[in-house]
């Protein structure tokens, strides 16, 4: 079959006219790639298909812009790569992100998709049958014909009917009311490595209809270790991946580990220390209202400040004192123009501190990021679980600043 490239008509909001295969990729891996889907292809009526096509077009724009950003070396000092922070404790450490094999594979997978859109589309659906992903509702849904067609259950309904904790409900109600303002507007800015805008300003159907999940809102053993305002003020969505709209098992016989999506975290919140047995990255795509408003923390599992408490065949429980002298220097500020990209290796303990004191209307603002995990196919390492750390003195309570915390690190298999 003749290679199908992403034509300019699909990229009306971008500065890119085609998905040209860069010279660091083998064209033989890209052209006429063969796809194996995780599920049978979805079928739609002619009337419904036009909405699915709109969603698919914006998905291709999102993915291509992201792949180009990761491999943009114009300002990084790298070769075919953007530069990323990967650890902040003990001094900010950076690397060329495409030095990582998992990142190379993810970028190759994206180019295989955008250069074979008709074949890859067989693995794509609107996921209208999934009852655990939601529409933010409100103005975001009203502005999107795709979201209106899908008519997913809304955040408003979710927090009212599926969340039991009253404090979480209260925060969730505020999050829902202001979600549109949180992810749109003039302060949404792309880092310089991006070729065009992939925010909700430019891709309104994708951001409205992708299917969002407030993953900490419902009661669970894990969520005892989280703060109420994060539980009600945080959501993520997956565009490409095992749980997303584009669900691919294999390309050219190789397992696909990419998960790519977006995250919104309300300001005036602290996402507590946590870790997982899979690599993860974030690109900051909103201008802060003041210096040091958005801060990232990352400490790798082999850092000398991380001490082993106990271990067995499957996990290592570690402790870390968050009240160390000079602890404030263990955080890195991020913005679209300052260290916008951060990469967390497997088992890196990390946290996000989003200040709201300098905001005129903090209830209308959030930290917004392009998010991805890279090796979700490796199920030996329990890729789906985010493990929240806990207070050592008060187990099953959130890991707070200024105390000794404990974290469960997975003994990864390789």
Which radius of gyration do the C-alpha atoms yield? 21 Å
Quote the average pLDDT.
94
Q: β content, as a range?
A: 15-25%
What's the overall geometry? globular
Notes on the protein architecture:
The protein is of the alpha+beta class and 414 residues long. The protein contains 10 helices and 20 strands. The protein has a 6-stranded antiparallel β-sheet with strand order 4-5-8-17-10-15. Helix 7 runs antiparallel to helix 8. Keywords: Signal.
Short key terms for the protein model shown above:
five-stranded antiparallel beta sheet, 23% strand, 20 strands, alpha+beta, 414 residues, RmlC-like_jellyroll, disordered N terminus, six-stranded antiparallel beta sheet, signal
Annotate the secondary structure layout:
Blueprint: H1 27-30, E1 35-37, H2 46-70, E2 83-87, E3 93-96, H3 101-114, H4 117-120, H5 138-142, H6 145-150, H7 155-161, H8 166-183, H9 204-209, E4 212-213, H10 228-232, E5 234-240, E6 248-251, E7 254-255, E8 259-266, E9 269-275, E10 280-284, E11 294-299, E12 307-311, E13 315-321, E14 331-333, E15 341-344, E16 349-354, E17 366-373, E18 387-388, E19 390-391, E20 404-410
Antiparallel strand pairs: 1-6, 2-3, 4-5, 5-8, 6-7, 8-17, 9-16, 9-18, 10-15, 10-17, 11-14, 11-16, 12-13, 13-20, 19-20
């Amino acid at each position: 079959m003749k290679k199908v490239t992403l034509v300019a008509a699909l990229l009306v909001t971008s500065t890119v006219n085609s998905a040209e295969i860069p010279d660091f990729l083998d064209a033989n891996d890209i052209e006429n790639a063969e796809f194996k889907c995780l599920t049978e292809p979805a079928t739609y009526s002619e009337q419904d298909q036009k909405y699915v096509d709109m969603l698919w077009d914006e998905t291709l724009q999102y993915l291509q812009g992201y792949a180009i950003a990761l491999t943009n070396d114009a300002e990084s000092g790298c070769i075919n790569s953007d530069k990323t922070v990967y650890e902040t404790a003990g001094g900010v450490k950076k690397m060329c992100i495409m030095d990582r094999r998992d990142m190379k594979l993810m970028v190759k997978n994206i180019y295989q998709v955008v250069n074979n859109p008709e074949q890859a589309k067989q693995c794509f659906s609107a996921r209208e049958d999934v009852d655990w992903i939601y529409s933010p509702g409100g103005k975001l849904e009203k502005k999107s014909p795709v979201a209106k067609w899908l008519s997913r259950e809304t955040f408003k309904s979710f927090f009212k009917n599926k969340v039991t904790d009253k404090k979480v409900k209260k925060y969730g109600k505020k999050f829902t009311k202001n979600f549109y303002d949180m992810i749109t507007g003039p302060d949404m800015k792309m880092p310089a490595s991006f070729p065009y805008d992939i925010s909700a300003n430019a891709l309104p159907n994708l951001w409205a209809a992708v299917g969002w999940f407030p993953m900490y809102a419902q009661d669970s053993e894990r969520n005892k270790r989280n703060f109420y305002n994060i539980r009600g003020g945080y959501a993520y969505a997956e565009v490409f991946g095992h749980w997303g709209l584009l669900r691919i098992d294999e390309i050219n016989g190789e397992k696909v580990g990419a998960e790519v999506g977006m995250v919104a975290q309300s300001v005036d919140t602290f996402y507590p220390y946590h870790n997982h047995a899979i690599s993860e990255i974030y690109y900051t795509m909103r201008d802060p209202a003041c210096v040091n408003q958005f801060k990232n923390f990352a400490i790798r599992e082999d850092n000398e400040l991380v001490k082993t408490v106990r271990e067995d065949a499957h996990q290592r429980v570690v402790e870390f004192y968050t009240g160390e002298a000079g602890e404030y220097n263990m955080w890195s500020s991020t913005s679209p123009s300052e260290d916008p990209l951060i990469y967390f290796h497997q088992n890196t303990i990390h946290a996000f501190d989003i200040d709201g004191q300098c905001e005129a209307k903090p209830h209308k603002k959030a930290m917004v990021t392009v998010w991805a995990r890279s090796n979700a196919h490796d199920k030996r390492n329990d890729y789906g679980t985010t493990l929240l750390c806990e207070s050592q003195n008060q187990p099953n309570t959130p890991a707070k600043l200024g105390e000794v915390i404990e974290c469960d690190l997975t003994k990864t298999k390789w």
